[in-house]
Amino acid sequence: MMNLHSQSEVELMVKKASASAVQRRRRPSPTGGRLRLREQFRSYAREVILEAGEDVMAAQGLHAARMEEVAEKARVAVGTIYNLIGDRDALVGEILRLRHEQLVVLLTRTLEEVRPLGFREQAERCLSTLLKYFREHRRFYQMAAESERGPACAHKRMSQETIAKIRELFSELVARGIAAGVLTERTQELGPLLLMGMLREVVMVDIGNESAVGPDERAKDVLAVFIEGAGVR
Question: What is the distance between the alpha carbons of residues 133 and 130, in angstroms, rounded to a whole number?
Answer without folding.
Answer: 5
